[in-house]
Amino acid sequence: MNKFKFAKVYFCILLCWAGMSVYAQDNVIDEVVWVVGDEAILKSDVENERLNAQYENRRFTGDPYCVIPEELAVQKLFLHQAEIDSVVVSDQEVLQQVEQRTSWLIDQIGSKEKMEEYYNKTFTQIREMLRENIRDGLTVQQMQQKIVGDIKLTPAEVRNYFKKLPADSIPFVPTQVEVQIITQEPKIAEEEIERVKAQLREYTDRINKGETTFSTLARFYSEDPGTARRGGEGGFTGRGELVPEFANVVFNLTDTKKVSKVFETEFGFHIAQLIEKRGDRVNYRHILLRPKVDQKQIDAALSRLDSIADDIRKNKFTFDDAATWISQDKETRNNHGLLANPQTSTSRFEMQQLAGLVSQDVAKVVEGMQIGEISKPFTMINSKGKEVCAIVKLKNRIDGHKATITEDYQRLKSMVTAKRSEEKIQKWIVEKQKTTYVRINPSWRNCDFKYPGWIKE
User: Fold this and answer.
1) Burial grade of 320 (CB within 10 A; 0-12, 13-18, 19 or more)
2) Tens-digit pLDDT profile for residues 149-182
3) By three-state DSSP, how is residue 177 classified?
4) How far apart are CA 118 and CA 131, in angstroms?
5) Which has the closest alpha carbon to 147: 366, 429, 424, 455?
6) Farthest CA pair distance, the chain
């Protein structure tokens, strides 16, 4: 139930570290091609990675049969050191990532059955494969973080790095904007709310009478696209990942055969059913229905925003004040309506980010505006999937430019931090090579390796 989970920078493990086997290689005669420490890298491991990369359109800078085994060897160096240093990944973190990854795969492939057919494995086998890969990936991440440590940079170090950059290496910063917003939610008629509740109660009756199943109704009628295709199943989720109203219901369910009463969240109205509880996590199904907004109410909200915009233009009050006291956008009204970019933790958005993270409608309106201008009222779909009415003010626009130390210090600092991290990791790999037993099959040695120290003879 992705839309009901708090926005988190949530799941990204590079598949080159994960070593995920996508295709069965029954026709490959296996052999050991590398040995790193006491760990073997098999020809089938390399072939699986090559096919996986081919499926994902990943391009290699060199021969895949040289690049891939070296990547796997580097991974084993990190895993070996993690074992020595007792770097441990929690079972709960692994389980959470497995649930997220499984749900994502089912979304992409279409169903649990199609996923089993695709991987030529049972659902249990797929989950076990993911569990091992994710544990290794998270362990490598933690080990790298431990090696890098806390990199602290002074402004002088960032400036010196920037001065030494060749002109053609200075990054180009696309046009960025800072935008304030005021929203109004059109009033929903009580009759419409009752209609939605009655519809959900009817679904409950049909399930209780055995006329159909919860998952069937969710596939046909739920308005949460992220879970509808899975029969409403949300996957194992912690309480903190759900909005409070939803968590209070699903975590209090005890009988897998019963359906909850109709309840409301900021996303709409729901019914839910328990699938399984596992420690402090719960798996559930739900059906979401959203009351429809009458066009008259939309017109009324647009008219009110038009009047507010006019009053701001006439200096009766400021946009900041209106956003604080009138706007119904909970996420921005405490900051005078200023939108925040979750990717950068700043108020600046590149236009593509504004469209993807906030709304395409907002991006279209802002694109042609002048600094300080207030838009005409328009409708948009907010982050909760609801249709709302809005006006925006373009607070600032920073045209696309070559990065400068004054305008783009944080971006340049991030570049220097990333460079220092990479240098530390590479230095560690070179040193680790010297103390680790490595044997490479002679027919796999004729390579231009990134780290030449693999072959010691």
Assistant:
1) middle
2) 989 999 999 999 999 989 888 999 999 999 999 9
3) strand
4) 18
5) 424
6) 82
